[in-house]
Please model this.
Amino acid sequence: MDMTQTRPGIHARFNLGFKDFSLNVDLEMPGRGVTALFGHSGSGKTTLLRCIAGLERAPAGYLSVDGEVWQDAATFVPTHRRPLGYVFQEASLFPHLSVRRNLEYGLKRVAPAARKVSLDHAVDLLGIGPLLDRLPERLSGGEKQRVAIARALAISPRILLMDEPLAALDLARKQEILPYLERLHDELEIPILYVSHAPDEVARLADYIVAMEHGRVAAQGPLGETLARLDLPIRLGEDAGVVLEGEIAELDQAWHLARVASAGGSLWVRDNGLPVGQHVRVRILARDISLALEPHGDSSILNVLPARVEQLADDTHPALALVKLNAAGAPLVARITRRSAARLELRPGQTVWAQIKAVALVG
Amino acid sequence: MFLSEGDLGAIVLTLELAGIVTAILLVLGTPIAWWLARTKSWLKGPLGAVVALPLVLPPSVLGFYLLLAMGPHGPVGHFTQWLGIGTLPFTFWGLVVASVFYSLPFMVQPVQNAFETIGDRPLEVAATLRASPIDTFFTVVLPLALPGFLTASILTFAHTVGEFGVVLMIGGNIPDETRVVSVQIYDHVEALAYGHAHRLSAVMLAFSFLVLLTLYAWRPNPKKH
Model:
């Protein structure tokens, strides 16, 4: 291996065997944006994150972050010397310290010259100003997790590792925290590795996805194209679908609708009060797209896009098929019955109309 | 006067002994407890058993072996004579050494329990917040284990105050040197001085009850964390 080369991004190679599980990965990940490590529980995503943090020691592993080697045959930088931030699934605040002193714990141990995120900024970003003098036992689950995220940010990490930070929370608490995570994504330059098994979190936050299965990388790539892959071995089931980037182009006050100009064409969504020009993501599930050979003006469906069939594949159930479409360059995936596919005589290259029953604004 | 001068001397000597032994065991027992709480080595079982031995061993057995080891022909005795400080049996410091062994489990076990209750997570969190292992020990582990240290110190102190068999084997019965309260009471009974024995025993009884009362009344609420 070439020790002197400096590779941007994160390069990780780990082989780690346990009794009933082994991790075998050799990965390059971008050093910017949010990278989702996605997979079912037991797929090895948390173990991979712990290896990157140095909390787990994989013998003969290799890890470099932006060209700096954290682990190779001769080196193992201990966790406390790695410039990273880590958010655990449970907030794990120090129970004997107030919120403020929890935040200061890491900050005090960072050289002043390396402090790029101010404590005030971290407190503001997570909205925890009013909690500073409380003890952790007096916080709700969502508040604790926001403090834990701020505590990890306050040490100005070069990379932020998050291990299912929302998994221990109920739906309402998740909804409380997600906007803060989006702000991290939009306002900070810090790359984030985000472990999750929830497709909706991934659709909302990730730019890049690494799908894990049985301790191996099953697929990886930019979010949009990877979700549209029909051979994605991680069967998303009901959650299969794509995410498109776009911006609010027009508001229809009379019908309370907003038009999103996306790569695939115009999509009308409910007006959530977002201003024109706002950058948004929309998520379209495969089960919400049906296909027609003619545009039907007489249906209730608002969003109908012309598209070309690119690929057909079997779905998990023998009655169903997945159809990958190209709508003006944007990938879409439709789930239809195989009988319908046969009746319409669908084949690659054919032009169809994608009737989209539901479009979700995800951020 | 409620207590005789001899009785007071014995009480002062006993408190001195218990205080010194507790202080020594805080320093010696903490690393042992830490190792026992964290290790995955097969030696954990054997070493844990050795630490617990004084709980079940008759004090005379422990005292006998210590007497041999510290005597003029034992390995410890050779060493102390080479140092030029003579032999330890029948001295105050001999009593200290013996008591350290005898009270070891009372310090190690509660502290080990406290360390085990903390678990791995706070240590991992501290590491991700740039704290070195030693830093983590003093800023996270010690504060979280404080109730365990309190319990262990009180138990060690009280147990040292209450020992008798080991003292008799190692220390004998030298006024102001090795004659602690329990031995003093024994002497009173031997001399049929039941009045003196009564008063000193009452002091010990009250002391022991107060110590245990403190321990049980202050016991930290386990639901808190």
